[in-house]
Amino acid sequence: MGIKANTVTTKREWRQIYAIYGMEQWQTLLFLLCHAIFFSLSSVVFLFYFDPICAFFNSFLSLGAAARFAAGFSGAVLGISAVCLFFAAGNFFYSALPLHYDMAQRMVGSVNDWSTVKTALDIGCGRGILLNAVATQLKKTGSSGRVVGLDRSKRTTLSTLRTANMEGVQEYVTCREGDVRSLPFGDNYFDVVVSGVFFHTVGKEYGPRTVEAAAERMRVLGEMVRVLKPDGVGVVWDLMHVPEYVQRLQDLKMEDIRVSERVTAFMVSSHIVTFRKPSQHIAGPGEVRLDWRC
Ligand SMILES: C[S@@+](CC[C@H](N)C(=O)[O-])C[C@H]1O[C@@H](n2cnc3c(N)ncnc32)[C@H](O)[C@@H]1O
């Protein structure tokens, strides 16, 4: 199996990706677009009705020049805000679909040989962009392996099975409802465990920067390592806390820990972290005991 240094990605048009996976968190996109349109229209109103607006400002400030400055400044701020909001909406859309698909290809591309993989797991599988990318690799390489997608939402797991069907990889995919904080699998079970834009959401009910949330993330990373077979490969793509993950993986004595170059997604820096669980894991006389749990 092992980790590959250079990865090859398969390109696909965003319309095809949208047709299968739709848009997760479309409310955020709608929110950004509505505000962008509102700010644009407001700045156009400032442009066309500059003199009446100056007169309106003047009725408060009673200073001609200051009123013109206030009106001009407000119009400029509205215009700049509209541009920023359109940019944010574009980046959100790009990150949620074409980039997400591309990153899933990169992630699966970092595993050396899928033909020898028998069991794989995607934690927090969502609508299945990454899960189906894994299943596609299993299918392509003629592996007899299967991938399990774990998500806490029953509705999500049902729609994930639909997307697997649309991708033609349904026989390689099983979906399971469960909580990643305590993975419902035995120790040393999977050859590969992957996770995309998920870890930073763990423990967010405590607030993203709290000690409790960090402890939950570390616990889930420990769970990921626990269910991984010795010599198994872990691949995590996330938007935040990457140094924290690397530190935890080092503490857990993982090998070949690699961090990809920075990729801007959802307006923040993201990285793919890959690692391998060492083959020596059974504690015996003179051997090192590695405990994957917190
Ligand atoms: C952003 S989506 C992940 C997208 C997915 N990895 C992909 O590549 O398409 C996050 C998913 O994690 C699931 N989730 C959140 N907390 C969870 C938990 N504690 N246990 C299991 N799944 C969880 C959510 O239901 C959601 O579907």
TrEMBL record:
The keyword Heme does not apply. Residues 121-234 form the Methyltransferase type domain. Keywords: Membrane, Transmembrane, Transmembrane helix. InterPro entries: Methyltransf_11, SAM-dependent_MTases_sf. GO terms for molecular function: S-adenosylmethionine-dependent methyltransferase activity. CDD domains: AdoMet_MTases. It comes from the Eukaryota. SUPFAM superfamilies: S-adenosyl-L-methionine-dependent methyltransferases (SSF53335). The chain crosses the membrane at residues 29-50, 70-97. This is Methyltransferase type 11 domain-containing protein. It comes from Acer yangbiense.
